[in-house]
Task: structure prediction
Amino acid sequence: MTTTPANWITTQATVTTCTYQFAGLSSLAFGFNTRQKFRITFDYYAHGQLYSGEFQSPTAIPQNDHFPITYNPLHPAENNRASAPPAPISPRRQLLTIGVLGSVLLSFAWLLILRSCN
Result:
């Protein structure tokens, strides 16, 4: 969650979806256990218009539940619950990914070489 200035306005948001995220299905989570397991999407009204957002939560929030959020009155799409932009991929994670993919490709190439010998 982000910090909010004192002049932001409080309103109620409604949960539209709550989905469980499997860490193993994310290529960026390979080898890392994340605590945030649920992806929560929500809608809220600001200045007569509907806005949407999403965040990750360690607990499920049922669909149609309401919770308070604050939003920037000058830019109503900005709110205190929206997820921060994803962090850049670390060089260590990039090397791990390249190593795994390289290993798979070399294994496949070796298999092709062995098959062509017969």
Summary: The chain has one helix and four strands. The CA atoms of residues 28 and 89 lie 8 Å apart.
